Task: structure prediction
Amino acid sequence: MVVILLRARSFARALFLFLMVNVMRCLLINPFYPLSENPSPPLGLAYLAAALEKAGVDVEILDYVVFPYNETDFWYRLTQFKPDIVAATAVTMTFDGAIQIIRVAKRWHSGCLTVMGGPHVTFCAEETLSAYPELDIVVLGEGEATLVEIADEAGKGGKWKEIPGLVYRLGDSLVSTGKRLHPIDVNTLNVPARHLLALGRYRALGMPISMTTSRGCPYACIFCVGRKMVGAKVRYRNPVNVVEEMETLAGYGFCQINIADDLFTANAHHCLAVCDEILNRNLKVKWTSFARVDTVSRVVLQRMKDAGCHAVSFGIESGNADILKTIRKGITLDQVIEAVSLCNQVGLMPHGSFILGLPGETPETLKETLAFGEKLKKQGVSYGFHLLAPFPGTWVRQKSAELGITILSNDWSDYHANRAIVETPSVTRGMLDDIVTGWENDFNRYLGLIAQRMAAGEASEEEAWPLVNLERTITLYDLMMEAAIEKKGRWTIGTPARQAGDLLQDLVDHLLTEEGDARRGKLVSALSHAIENGFLQYTVTADIIQWKWGGSHH
Result:
């Protein structure tokens, strides 16, 4: 009997070791994205990771938005984790960074399967695979089901033809299996695997955390790929599940939650049901959402306000009615004014976004848009501009010649929408850039005036907050991207019982390399704020102190 039991135990242990050795490993990559774009923890990758984990895949996420990338460290992570699959996501402006990481992964181990998904490669899959032989597979559209099937098939020999939703290389040819016929049922998705994300770093930077209540966009604006990426039919999550997730996020300590749906107000019934569930639970949470001016009413906006929404963002795009028709926006300027008025009536902060350089843009239409923005500003609207970026997959790129748009760059790193890469017959790149740089200069002058008033002791705390918060964020971000805490945040201390203030000064001393460094004051301010709020923490073991970013899995 003892012999049989020992054999059973040996078999179980052998089976366990076999399964551990043969478990599929997938490394997900979030490529660098500038801080100026106000990034949040990568929700799409968290959804992918959750689907993979459910399928029994071992998953890690490398987030190069809040961690510095260098090839040596990446190589070390690859060697430690030994992924079978390295998969990166990318929008157009982050594609160059993503593909370079893919190339390094393939150089590390030629047998590693390399995959890329996201809106950029979805719409130029063949072009990308042809240009970069290190990339094996492109995932089209929504990726959860497709990536799980790729991971399953990768362990069996890689017969990709049976998996819909991808383009892959077969010898010297490229094969597309076409789009998946049925979009994902959003109510079957697992809760995003946020335990794999560096939440503490985003929280320390004052960035929001995002979630979705639906997928899909019924509108067909010619500058956007949203509808083509996730479908025209909006699929809604169960409001109870939505608010359960929101309740969990409310406990994470972020400044706010962003509902990242393409259009939260697409369906009034769904919107109201989510708000009612928040109110029924008496959940106190601060959140924002995207809306269209023709999909809001006083009832909807009031309920959103009551449920904790404090700001709504509208895509207005242009102050010229003809351009709005050309881009198939489907709204009028009167509807914009009405929506703003409704927001003001219920106490919601309206935000408007415009795109300059659209088809039909002239010096006169630019003036109209700028004037319309100033008109809205007097009604309490905060607003901003982007410059048209004709992303792959958009109608404006496919029909640029017919629409009178000249595309000036196919360097994907230029597609950040902050500098002109298109011209119209009467609007030049310089004219568009002048508007944006003028705005940037005005903002810098505004910050300069705050700094002067602070130096003179004349600025109130409220007045000083924008500059103080910006400087804190930049200081903490620089420390993250220099890996300064990781490299210099550990040392031997003589007296374990030193006071917190002394430990802060010690940390600043270790971070600064020169006496009289002008950064000392900013470091003290940023680090004390981070420590007070739990963003930066330390442990003392024996006589060793170790600092780390709080709430981060790394």
Remarks:
- The radius of gyration is 26 Å.
